[in-house]
Structure formats: C-alpha cells, structure tokens
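$ ./design --mode recover --in tokens.txt
reading tokens...
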C-alpha cells in the first residue's frame, strides 16, 4: 500500500437540520430540543470546515445527505395516503415520529460506518461496515441510504468491500467509526485498530452505565473486526468507562482521538486506562511504531468540561509536512479549563498547530468536528478508483454554497416539519445535488 493518505469524508448537512431532542444520553441534543435551527448556516459552517482543511492540504470529500422525510418509515408505522396526508397525520398525532422521519443526523458521518484500510485487511481491500445505529429510532434507518451511498462511491470491488449493517438487534448495537481508532507509523503501513465498546449482551463481567444507554456493543465490535479480516494480534477491544457515558460521553470520540502514533485522551475514558495504553503500545511495537500518548488529567479538564467543550471531538490530522494539527470547536475557548489547557498544548510538542472553527449549529446537537467526518485511508490507486464527483475542490465548494443558498431555509422550528412544502423543497434540492455530485441514481428506487 503505497502513497496512502487519509481522506476526510464530511457529511454535507441536509436541508432539514433541526433540534428535536431525539438522542437521550447526548446532553447537547437534549438542551437544544425544540429550539430554532438554521439549516443554511449549518450547511455553510460544514462546507467552510471542509474548505479550511482542503486549503491546508488535507484530502477532503463529501458524503451527501439523505432524503427526508423518510416516507418509508412513516408508512411502516401505519401512516397512510399521499405524502402530504402522511405528514399531516404524523404532525397531528405523533410529532416525535415526524421529527425522526425528518432527522438530518446522517450529517455525522463518523457514525456512517467503520473503515479498515487495505494495509490492515486480509484480502488487501478497503473494508467498510455500515453502522446500524440501532439504539436511536431517528438514526436506525440511515443504514439503508448509507449503504447505497458507499456502494455508489466505492463501487470497484477490486479495491473496496462494503458490508451491510449488522443485524439490528441490541446484541449488535454499532455506531461506526465513532468508537474506532487506527494507529500506525504511516498511512501506507499496517496499523493497529482499537475498538471501544460500552456494553455487552452476553459478557456478564461488563458493567453497563446506569443512567444513559451505551450504544456500542462488544459483540458488534468483534463482528466488524471479523468482517474486515483484521489480524488478531493488531486488533484491540476495550471497554469505555460506564461512568463517563453517564456524564454524556455517548461515543468514545467525545473523550479520545488518535491519529498516526498519537493518542489524545482523557484519563477517565476507559475502564482500565493503564491496560489500554499498554496494549496499544505493545501492539504498535509490532509494526515498528512507538505510541505517543497525551493524557489529559481530570484535574486539568473534567469530564463535564470535555462534554461541553468537545475538546476530544477535535480532528487530529497529519499535515502535508508530516506534523500534526488539531482542529477544535470554538466552544473549547468558551470553557475556562479547556482554553487554559489549550494555551499550553503546543508545549507537548506532538501537536504543531492548533486551529478552531465555528460549528455551532452542529454542536448544538452534539456533533463536533470529528463527528462530521468519516476517515478513509486510501492509496493513490484506490482514490482514483472511487467515484470522483464527491472529491472536494474549490469548484465543488462554490457550487455547493450556491446550492445551499438557493434551497435551504434559515429558520426551522418543530412546527415547520408539518409544512408539506418543506418535503417538496428537500426533494428538489436533492435532485439537483445528485447532478452536482454526478450520482444520478443516488435517491431513486428506495
Ligand atoms: O447520534 N445527535 C447525534 C450526534 C452524533 C455525534 N457523533 C459522534 N459523536 N461521532 C447522535 O446523538 C441529535 C438529533 C436531535 O436531537 O434532533 C443527534 O442525533
């Protein structure tokens, strides 16, 4: 695997981005429930993040939003008649179901799939397992369109293998790359893959959180590693600390992030921190790499501060010169402990550059910089073999900004979901988007 790079596939925020309080256990989602959202601003903030990174030499691509509302779901739940009639009946009798059908949560593409690059897999292909996201109704149907989208982009089976989502039952709760970290010496070389789970259906020794649900199961993590043909000696499964899940850390990427041989994590992230770090260190030695760990102590930044600021939901990126850059959400500078911590971060010398960004619209639903992107490590040959229309360029940026400005609303309130015109607006926006991205069959025949 030569000349590999990490591509960041960012979710393009859809026209129905709204705050419905659907994610119990995700503190921001609950706090924002029923507030007015601004889909236009949300999409433009996301596009500006992509542009900022592309301009700094990071390989960047786009994953399109999903068609909403999900009429298949409404029909499956007993709503009948025309589309307008279904919307009217759902708004009147079960507005929460309409909000689920309208959710734009597929924007957080770290939850779209788990990805293993070809340097790690038995058959030398890049493997993707679509996440079933089965712990939340509004996310549980994303997998249908996600699979179609990934198959449309990574259609060449000589290089790519896309696996359908795991069976949708509690045993296999799977939230994708948000609970998965890959370490390596360089992207072209074999690496180690760390899977973090929050619960187990069958292992009685694993203690679950008490207040909030754990989304990722151990059984799901094991199955994904099997599907991808990972080498057992370079694959690690560890448990997330149930106490931090109870404090709002609903995915591991809210409390840890890794890239290359660097691991930036909070002291309380895992059930057994020492063992986790030792396992990573030993496994990395097998691939001739040395783990560099930046451990953030609770005395410096509490778990509560980590949850409000999303410090660990930053993007840790390798710059073209090989040095590391950390892109944090601006909320980090609104938190006293975190901003004090960041003032000294560069002295750790592992991180060369610190950037911040305004993603307020996404952050209010619990999605920071890292939630918005799916990392896919690709060789030059693989990158050439994927669909090219989703690769981020200045030209695509300009077209998408125009597209957003033409089609998106700048205020969306819960009651606006009852407006049948909104559904028509989304349909015409997505029809045009599939042309812009050169994916004509993206939303047809579902
Ligand atoms: O699944 N929020 C998403 C946020 C996902 C963040 N992803 C990562 N950490 N990788 C979730 O909880 C809120 C939707 C609402 O309440 O309207 C929501 O789904």
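writing sequence...
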């Amino acid at each position: 695997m030569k000349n590999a790079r990490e591509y960041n596939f960012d979710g393009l925020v859809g026209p129905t981005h709204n705050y419905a309080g659907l994610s119990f256990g995700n503190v921001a989602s609950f706090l924002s429930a029923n507030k007015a959202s601004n889909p236009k601003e949300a999409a433009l903030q996301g596009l500006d993040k992509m542009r900022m990174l592309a301009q700094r030499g990071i390989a960047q691509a786009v994953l399109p939003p999903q068609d909403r509302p999900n009429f298949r779901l409404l029909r499956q739940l007993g709503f009948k008649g025309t589309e307008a009639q279904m919307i009217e009946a759902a708004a009147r009798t079960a507005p929460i179901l309409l909000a689920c059908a309208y959710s734009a949560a597929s924007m957080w593409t770290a939850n779209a799939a788990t990805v293993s690059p070809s340097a790690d897999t038995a058959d030398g292909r890049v493997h993707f397992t679509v996440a079933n996201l089965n712990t939340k109704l509004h996310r549980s149907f994303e997998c249908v369109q996600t699979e179609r989208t990934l198959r449309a982009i990574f259609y060449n089976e000589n290089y790519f293998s896309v696996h359908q989502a795991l069976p949708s039952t509690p045993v296999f709760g799977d939230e994708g790359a948000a609970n998965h970290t890959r370490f390596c010496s360089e992207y072209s070389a074999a690496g180690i893959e760390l899977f973090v789970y929050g619960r187990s259906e069958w292992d009685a020794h694993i203690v679950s959180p008490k207040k909030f649900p754990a989304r990722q199961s151990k059984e799901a993590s094991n199955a994904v590693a099997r599907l991808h043909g990972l080498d057992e000696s370079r694959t690690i499964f560890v448990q997330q600390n149930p106490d931090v899940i109870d404090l709002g850390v609903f995915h591991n990427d809210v409390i840890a992030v890794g890239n290359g041989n660097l691991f930036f994590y909070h002291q309380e992230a895992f059930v057994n921190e020492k063992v986790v770090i030792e396992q990573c260190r030993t496994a990395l030695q097998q691939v001739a790499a040395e783990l560099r760990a930046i451990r953030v102590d609770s005395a410096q930044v509490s778990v509560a501060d980590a949850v409000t600021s999303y410090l660990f939901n930053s993007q840790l990126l390798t710059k073209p010169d090989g040095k590391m850059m950390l892109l944090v959400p601006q909320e980090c500078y609104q938190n006293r402990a975190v901003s004090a911590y960041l003032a000294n971060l560069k002295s750790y010398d592992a991180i060369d550059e610190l950037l911040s960004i305004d993603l307020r619209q996404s952050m209010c639903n619990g999605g920071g910089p890292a939630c918005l992107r799916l990392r896919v490590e690709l060789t030059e040959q693989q990158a050439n073999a994927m669909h090219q229309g989703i690769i981020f360029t200045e030209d695509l940026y300009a077209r998408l900004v125009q597209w957003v400005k033409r089609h998106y609303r700048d205020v969306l309130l819960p009651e606006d979901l009852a407006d049948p015109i909104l559904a028509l607006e989304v349909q015409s926006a997505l029809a045009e988007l599939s042309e812009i991205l050169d994916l004509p069959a993206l939303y047809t025949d579902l």
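exit 0
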